[in-house]
Amino acid sequence: MAYVKLYNVSVNGGVIFTISGTKVSYVWKNITNYKPVPGKFDVSEVDVAGFENPKISLSGVIDSNADSTTMGILKSFAKLQFDGTTTTAIKLTLASGTDDVLIKDSSDTNEYIYCIIESFNFDFDTSVKEGAKILYQLVLRETETA
Fold first, then answer.
1. Cross-strand pairs, 84
2. 3-142 belongs to which CATH class?
3. What pLDDT shows up at residue 117?
4. How wide is the angle at C-alpha 19 spanned by C-alphas 58 and 68, nearest 5°?
5. Long-range CB contacts (< 8 A, 24+ apart) of 16-19?
6. DSSP classification of residue 98
7. 46 and 34 Cβ atoms separated by less than 8 Å
């Protein structure tokens, strides 16, 4: 079964936090150096100059009637102040498929991804009975640690 796990020693009493029913988006963007040819409409030459740190978005639904702790734990992860060390980074583990195939970091060496929270938002509608369903999105950015 696929899963998403978040870990930081300062959050949730240092216990790994597993999020269920989460949609995961992993975005990779190359940084390119375009060399246009003046006066011509031919395809320009492109060199890849590197890549941005991958962005990982986690989104899902929290039932606030049945789960009062998830929102608090996600807020605790969002409040972490990253200082470049593994102590303040979030260790993200992603597994997909029925065989729990692990999504490795961008160097393709670690079976977890050190990341920081780029943004965290949640939405709910109080005008409907289903207002107890909170939609959340957590956007993380892969990072290097010292």
1. none
2. mainly beta
3. 93
4. 110
5. 16/93, 17/73, 17/77, 19/58, 19/60, 19/70
6. T
7. yes
Model pTM score: 0.79
Least Cα distance to 124 among 112, 114, 136 occurs for 136
CB atoms within 10 A of CB 118: 14
Q: Tokens 């102040």 belong to which residue?
A: 81
**Tally of residues, the chain:** 146
What is the spatial distance between Cα 12 and Cα 23, in angstroms, rounded to a whole number?
22
pLDDT digits (tens, 9 = 90+) for 89-135: 999 999 888 777 888 888 888 888 999 999 999 888 777 666 678 88
Tens digits of per-residue pLDDT, 27-85? Answer: 988 887 666 666 665 665 666 677 888 999 999 888 777 777 888 899 999 999 999 89
Nearest to 17 by CA among 138, 128, 124: 138
- Burial (CB < 10 A; 0-12, 13-18, 19+), residue 6, is buried
Q: Which helix (H) or strand (E) holds 58?
A: strand 55-63
Looking up tokens 């289903």, which residue turns up? 130
The tokens describing 94, both together, are 């992603």
